[in-house]
Amino acid sequence: MIRESGRFRVVRYVAYVVFGLFFLLPLYSMLDFSTRDVATGARTGKAWAALVQDEVLRASIVTSILLAVLTTVLMLALLVPTMIWVRLRVPQASRLIEFLCLLPLTIPPLVIVVGISNVYAWVSYLFGNSAYTLTFVYVVLVLPYSYRAIDSALSSINVVTLAEAARSLGAGWSTVILRVILPNITSGVTNATFVTVALVLGEYTFTSLLNFPQTMPYVIAAIGKSDAPVSVAAALGSLIFATLLLLLFSLLGRRNRSAKEA
Amino acid sequence: MSKLSKAAPWAGLLPFMIYLVVFLLAPTITVVVGAFQEDGRFSLVNVNELFSSTLLTVLWKSVLLSGVSAIVGAVLGAFLSYLIVTRPATSVVRRVVTAAAGVLAQFGGLSLAFAFIATLGFSGIVTKAVSSSLGLDIYGNGWIYALPGLTLVYTYFQIPLMVIVFLPALDGVRPQWREAAVSLGASTWQYWRQVAAPLLTPAFLGALLLLFANAFAAYATAAILVSQGQPITPLFIRAALNSEVMLGRQNLAFALAFEMVIVVSIVMAAYALLLRRASRWLR
Questions:
Q1: Do A108 and B217 touch (CB under 8 A)?
Q2: Which of A158, A198, B27, B130 has the least C-beta neighbours within 10 A?
Q3: How far is A121 from chain B (nearest CA, A)?
Q4: What 8-state DSSP symbol labels residue A4?
Q5: Do A29 and B257 touch (CB under 8 A)?
Q6: What is the ipTM of this complex?
Q7: In terms of DSSP H, where are the helices of chain A?
Q8: CA A223, CA A86: separation in Å to the nearest integer?
Q9: Which long-range contacts (CB under 8 A, 24 or more apart) does A156-162 make?
Q10: What is the model's pTM?
């Protein structure tokens, strides 16, 4: 190990402080701003109370959480069986599936919005004009991140051997996927779930341009024009929620790992 | 094996394929075809308009915003990665930085915009603190709601993204290489100049391109912060879709979206090439 000079040590600590300030200041400002009365500058919990008291905002939080759940379920239902199937039966298709899953990184959400009106005319004809139909585009949005999470979990186990063992004992394909392989890739599934929930709770492009004013991000943006502290409180609240979720998932992941090692 | 039994496993991919065709490929094809149409007939009107001075300026500002925020984010992010990569994997600093980068990179554009409104907006905490303690007006004419402000706000998510992308590459640089260089008489500068830099350049440039594409495609932050005018391409698309001034210019929106796809595809293709090169040494 090559030791660093004393002068570089100073640079290191100064840099920590500067980076820390840059990243923490906006977060601190959100907290301070959302607990102050704009006119008088006095402390008040009004903005945070509005998160549960304001009917529209409260309803939108529920809608967005439900939307996150629906998106997670549809994403998992679509992606997990397909990815396992590719590894077991059609490994030639793995590059194609990877390409398709990563494609949304190259086609920005804004582009999908611009081109999707025909598809959504059909969607609202079939499912009604509900904000929950956003689930369909949100699955596409989270695809690259979910794919990577599940792919790395699948790479760390021997899918083919597990499946052959189960099949030779008489298991059907659904048993292989749901009861043999799925329990072995929980870390990937939880990571994919976290990313999905975080993205859906903050997604603004689709909900605003496809005109679904029922979701939380839409409502936060709309309130921001008249009552900024409430929007800031809601924005900080959703960030804290996402952070707690990430902590929870990483704790769960660690427990799983130590249970396996024991 | 009969043809049928060969094709059967592919049938298992059908639900996924159909889903992506409907919700990803169909919209993209609509955009590409629509860009070359007007009133339902083939036309170059909209694509030609992309080269009008107004739209070229808008594109240039988009490129400028993405480029500056990507370069600043990449340089600072690489520096931060370097600071923590030399710490042991168990150190508190390293854990805190990687976890924070994970959360902040997922920081939705919407929350981010409000974070900066609360910090540097008209009645923002920093704006007020500076004016009451130093008597300075840092709000000015509302620069935070224009291109300079957007650049600053974008940097806030570019740095964490850089840490996530670049840290694995830095981790791949083995301490033995430095020891080997030093034992052959290299100075620290020579080691960086002749060993580390050539190894890390593809990874750095690749990450830089990823950051560029990330900023170029971003919409939410700008949509919240900039309510007047449309300085960058994504906001011009919003105007083409919504505003009454440009009512019926659906196909101009297609052309602009097509332009975005072209720019992002070129950047991402270059990224993939660099990534392949970077992985030759660093794994």
A1: yes
A2: A158
A3: 12
A4: P
A5: no
A6: 0.88
A7: 6-34, 46-53, 55-88, 94-102, 109-115, 117-127, 134-155, 159-168, 173-175, 186-202, 205-209, 216-224, 228-261
A8: 46
A9: A157/A181, A157/A184, A157/A185, A159/A84, A159/A87, A159/A88, A160/A87, A160/A88
A10: 0.89
- Whether A260 has a pLDDT exceeding 60, the answer reads no
CA distance A46 to chain B (A): 16
B114 and A204 within 8 Å at the Cβ level: the answer is: no
- Nearest-CB residue to A109 (from B219, B242, B256): B219
Taking CA–CA distances from A23, the nearest residue in chain B reads: B156
CA B240 to chain CA centroid, nearest Å: 23
Q: Is the Cβ of B272 closer than 8 Å to some Cβ of chain A?
A: no
Contacts of A81 in chain B (CB under 8 A): 12
CB contact under 8 A, B28 and A30: no
Give A93's contacts in chain B (Cβ within 8 Å): 10, 13
Chain A within 8 Å of B197 (Cβ-Cβ)? Answer: no
Partners of residue B15 in chain A, C-beta under 8 Å: 78, 82
Q: Is the pLDDT of residue B174 over 90?
A: no
Q: Does B40 touch chain A (CB under 8 A)?
A: no
Contact A12, B79 (CB under 8 A): no
What are B108-155's pLDDT values in tens digits?
789 999 999 999 988 888 888 888 888 888 888 888 888 999 999 999
Nearest to B257 among A103, A114, A205 (CB): A114
B99 CB-contact burial (10 Å; exposed 0-12 / middle 13-18 / buried 19+): middle
The better pLDDT of the pair A250, A244 is held by: A244
- Of A89, A92, A75, nearest in space to A147 by CA: A75
Q: What whole-number distance in Å separates Cα of residue A55 and Cα of residue A60? A: 9
Give the model's pLDDT for residue B79.
94
Residue B235: C-alpha distances to residues A200, B11, B118, B241 (Å)? 21, 41, 22, 10
> Which segment of A258-262, B27-31, B56-60, B174-178 scores lowest on mean pLDDT?
A258-262
Angle at B90 between CA B84 and CA B93, to 5 degrees: 40
Alpha carbon separation from B257 to A79, B38, B121 (Å, rounded): 27, 15, 31
pLDDT band at B246 (very low <50, low <70, confident <90, very high): low
Report the C-alpha gap between B282 and A144 in whole angstroms. 23
